[in-house]
Please model this.
Amino acid sequence: MGAWALILAVVMGLVIAEHARVDAQTPQTDSEYVVAIDAEYAPYEYVDPSGTATGFTVSLLTAIGRDAGVRFRFVPMAWPDAVAGLADGSVDLVNMIQTPERAAKYEFSRPHSQIAQAIFVARDSDITGLDTLAGHTVALQEHDIALEKLAARTDFARVIVHSKEQGLLLLDAGRVDAFFAAEQAGLWLVREYRLRDVRLAETGLWPLPFGFAARKGNTELIALLNSHLDRLKASGEYQELVRRWFTPPPVAESWFARYEDLALISFVGLVALALLFLAWNFALHRAVTQRTAELHASEARYRNFYENVHDVIYRTDNKGVITDISPSVETRAGYRREEVIGRPVLDFFVDPEEYARLDAAMLQEGVVNDMEIRLRARDGRVIFTSITARLVYDDSGRPIATEGVLRDITERKQAEQALRDTNELLEIVFSNTHLMLAYLDRDFNFVRVNRAYAEADERTPDFFPGKNHFDLYPNPENEAIFRRVVETGEPYFAYAKPFEYAEHPERGVTYWDWSLVPVKDSSGQVTHLILSVLNVSERVKALQALRESEMRYRVLAEAAPDMVFVIGAEGSIRYVNSRAAALLGLPAEEARGHAVEDFFPPDVAARYRRSLGKVFRSGEPLAVESPSRIHGRSLWLHTHLVPLWDEDGKVKEARGAAPDVTQRKQMESAL
Model:
């Protein structure tokens, strides 16, 4: 009966999958939305062997599209491409777990399901949940939430795997004691690979909402999804999809359920012995036929996995000669299978010493996990590779072959090298900049400081780590600023902020430009602070001195009985004192911006313009005594012009004083 039930389930699954494929690909409206899907995340979304997008979310969106009169087009994409497409608008929807950080970046529909983790173990395992993992070997998938949640646990051994398939197959082979995976995805694979000796130990761990994400601001599409999701739930169609795609966690087995096959075989045997040898022979024949069919089906599944896996699976004999390799070797390294099979695996190593290290580890341990090696591709490029392999033994315990998986980690290694280069550059800048830099934890304890920071306090950099900033530099105002940065996650910038050293009162008031920038983890929590400080006391004091000098200059200029003025390089008046303003016949503020031509006749203005030109060109002072006319009044002025330079050594303005010498010139004429 079990075989007939299995066959019926497979037939029904094929019928339903075909129905979903037709639904997903039938145009129904002019409105079409592009949905990025994961090609390998069954039962939620995946691409079946025929190349058709299917799964729970594909069926759900197809039903929503039929109900709403829109169409969804499903495009398999890698996660980085899907997120980039959502950002640039080429993708309308991505199915993703909702977190506070993502909610700030995207519009989310109401969750259509939850992703919860589960612990998968061998059927006879004594592991019952999280509290019984101690002393065991546990497989964890890279980048999985379980890695983060169990980071603090040190009471069990870890094996990091690259996929759920790898973790479950290691568990089924007895090489690990437990494996953490998303509950429904794991149950799907257990069913697909018919892993009879794998069961659930604990379910419902760390549930997270799973829904559709759209570009920020696309509330119209989200409203459509929410509305029609509610309609599907009300009609019962949503519940049908859940029952169709998701596997309910099995209830605890009774003794009879666990040993059902043995009981049935025993019963059949007793009946056969009691009745007829022919009946027994028929039953045996049927069992053999069923088992043979199962083996063929299992072989087909493993062959499909073998031929379509992204990593390279290989097998060598006990002399290291390759006897089989998956077709993915062509896409990964450019070799055809027939070019590789029959050659020593050593031929493909960049460094023979790496092969010797691998061989020694295999002989000593019988297995290697994630050992990093370098292989040579057909075009000569180097492929950084992570290898996981094990020895295969015959019945006498003699190693006869090696089976392994090769994963291309070239992009990861390049990213790691780029990160190292960046860190080296940052370290050079950190250590040698004149800017004072400090790295603190969220409680304001120093983690490290650079040399400039330490020398400013007449200490060495190794004095600071572990000490609290405000134990060394107590300042309630600054401490409040630090706490606000930690609480809000917003940086703070200050310019020419005064500060007095409690331990060095002789330094008086000092002035500092400083910034405090928060460093956040992946969840958005502030974990550290970067403090940058620049002593601008000399600059502030110089500006104060300059302002005081300017003030003295203006006091003297205003008190002078002579005309005092400033002319810019462009020829306009920048300042006149009260005496000059009176002679020009307008308030001093209104004189600013005028040209000399605005107040003197053309011949007088031209003479003054030539004198100014000499000062700006030569950079030398000039004294000239000449007749002048202002508002029809004739007078003689003894004009002194002095150049003033900018930071680049160019004359930026001419400052002048022009005493009225008309009376002296009249007396000289009278003599």
Remarks:
- The chain is about 40% helix and 30% strand.
- The mean pLDDT is 84.
- The two ends are 144 Å apart (CA to CA).
- The CA atoms of residues 182 and 656 lie 84 Å apart.
